[in-house]
């Protein structure tokens, strides 16, 4: 996908396979448009990983990590990825053939709406926390992997400044993260007591959780083998 995104011909093929809007084939295509494409596609796959195996409708045995891996191993194609995306769409009450909006400017228009009672209220608040408190950015700067080199830290920092203003710099974000960790203690110096902290062995977020050490003292740490994020 990365190689295809570098040429107009390749981007046209991506638009056709994934049923995208025209953001990648307009006269002017920005690096942010391309990065946003990879982020949106990776979000669908992440949805499967985090919801895998929960006891709700298709998540029980269809939208699972095993099904996704089996499909990508035995049929490693972009069409297989689009089929998985279609399965996620169906679980969300949409047609599996729905088009995918990946335009970066469309993302900005959506996120800049400051009204509290619109459908962007939750994702805007989550983005603000990521930019201002957590620094939770799902980068892919490793050279190997499906999305290798497509989602650098600079892209996520640009999202912060483009939505909330130029004061959301790397330095500001790092300072805010330090303040958050100092206040709550992070997973190494968590000061709470009598807290039940569960960690699924297959949940990527477990790496950020409290599993042992001083933070586990006077708390209840539960490790659940084979469980995911929303189990």
UniProtKB/TrEMBL annotation:
This protein's record includes keyword Hydrolase: yes
Keyword Glycoprotein: yes
InterPro entries: AB_hydrolase_fold (IPR029058), Peptidase_S28 (IPR008758)
Keywords from the UniProt entry: Glycoprotein, Hydrolase, Protease, Signal
GO molecular function: dipeptidyl-peptidase activity; serine-type exopeptidase activity
Gene3D superfamilies given in the database record: alpha/beta hydrolase
UniProt record similarity statement: Belongs to the peptidase S28 family.
Protein name according to UniProt: Uncharacterized protein
Classification via Pfam families: Peptidase_S28
A Gene Ontology biological process term: proteolysis
